[in-house]
Amino acid sequence: MAMSNRRRFLVNAGLLTGAAALPTTTATTTATAAGATARAAPPGDAPTSPSGQPLVDASGRVDWSAVRAQFRLAPDRVHLNAFLLSPHPAPVRAEIDRLRRLMDADPSWVQRAYWGDPSVKEWVRLRASLAGYLGGRPEEIAPVPNTTIGLALVYQGLRVRPGQELFVTEHDHFAHQNAVRLAAARGDAEVRVGRLYDDPATVSVDEVAERLRAAITPRTRAVGVTWVQSSTGVKLPVPVLAEVVARANAGRAEADRCLLVVDGVHGLGAEDADVAALGADIFVSGTHKWLFGPRGTGLVWARPDAWAQLRPVTPSFLRRDPVEPTTADDLVPGGFLAFEHVFAVPAAVDFHRRIGRDRVAARTRELSARLRRGLADTPGVVLHTPLSERLSSGLTCFEVPGLDHHEVADRLAERRIRITNAQYRVPYPRLGTGITNRSEDVDRVLAEIRRLVRS
Ligand SMILES: Cc1ncc(COP(=O)(O)O)c(C=O)c1O
């Protein structure tokens, strides 16, 4: 059988030798594209425990301590802040190293990654991998450096007419709000900031749906929301909101259609959902939080008709002569990038998929539910995130009356527990549980919070 261009290149470059140069297959839908990862990775990089045992046994049980051992998190601390910026698991570190070595050995490799035929194009591999995870199509995805830049590209690019408005909520991150404000400041649109609920602890699906319905006017060109909100830990029912937007769009012309833009950074990698089927028109997320992807990576996914509603903002290296309609290729910020990070995203996707998106989500949920029940049962603690699983995910916001959010974080840090703060209009101490955590971590932080209340 003829050797593929990609394999020929790797072998010629001396980067695949002996057994490593033999073809291998992987079990994921990105098998062909991700094959190089499996081939070139050093032993111990695959999702197995340090002893070589698989992370998931034949009956589907996950060895969570083996999962944790894939990370270099300091063992003398409890890390309940993994949502801040990803620690890289072993397969991601190995892939970053492999790509760095490739480019150090032969920088011209990057030309092939960018412009080579599809069998060697790293972009193809990257998008196929993300599409498999999101349940979308590769051509619907624009890899971007992070959520913030993705949101900026979307709102700056959105075709709006004077008199139209962009609606965003006070629960959204300032990156989202400012992306909207900066786009509107160019004179095309007005901004309206709304509120979908008053009290996060008692929020209901009907309440957010009704408030959104009331907020959309015929002038509303986009609604920006956050799937899992870092301000409160509330998970919005995106499919329900999508129905509200769809009803408001009935009878509207394409140029008047209201687009639902979702900041999904705290749901991607934490929730078991096909993002492309949530009902959003545009979904923006970093892959460097819950997905544990390389730092400085993210994506914009949009439906094909939504891509056509955007204009390119930065020169793309994937389509040098853009013509209408706009495609995802046009939104990918061009220039040479930190390719060892960008192209290592499939290793993170692969890691998640091998554990199982459903198992990752169940683990995140189980630990968070334990945490929230414990906080709710602690007299003197105010829990702001809903107990309902439908309206919460891996983030939990709470308060210890008498202590401000910095004091809570500082006092826990003294006890070697790392948490963060939700730096919003109303700031709260915030905890996040994920696949790097054990139930002992949850019990430990609960015990320390109870100590704080008593002191
Ligand atoms: C809800 C939300 N959106 C966006 C961001 C910014 O993410 P990124 O670093 O991917 O730009 C954050 C940061 O923590 C966030 O919490």
Automatic annotation (TrEMBL):
<dbReference type="InterPro" id="IPR006311">
    <property type="entry name" value="TAT_signal"/>
</dbReference>
<keyword id="KW-0663">Pyridoxal phosphate</keyword>
<dbReference type="Pfam" id="PF00266">
    <property type="entry name" value="Aminotran_5"/>
</dbReference>
<feature type="domain" description="Aminotransferase class V">
    <location>
        <begin position="126"/>
        <end position="420"/>
    </location>
</feature>
<feature type="compositionally biased region" description="Low complexity">
    <location>
        <begin position="32"/>
        <end position="48"/>
    </location>
</feature>
<dbReference type="InterPro" id="IPR015424">
    <property type="entry name" value="PyrdxlP-dep_Trfase"/>
</dbReference>
<keyword id="KW-0732">Signal</keyword>
<dbReference type="InterPro" id="IPR015422">
    <property type="entry name" value="PyrdxlP-dep_Trfase_small"/>
</dbReference>
<feature type="signal peptide">
    <location>
        <begin position="1"/>
        <end position="33"/>
    </location>
</feature>
<keyword id="KW-0456">Lyase</keyword>
<protein>
    <submittedName>
        <fullName>Selenocysteine lyase/cysteine desulfurase</fullName>
    </submittedName>
</protein>
<feature type="region of interest" description="Disordered">
    <location>
        <begin position="32"/>
        <end position="57"/>
    </location>
</feature>
<dbReference type="InterPro" id="IPR015421">
    <property type="entry name" value="PyrdxlP-dep_Trfase_major"/>
</dbReference>
<dbReference type="InterPro" id="IPR000192">
    <property type="entry name" value="Aminotrans_V_dom"/>
</dbReference>
<dbReference type="GO" id="GO:0016829">
    <property type="term" value="F:lyase activity"/>
</dbReference>
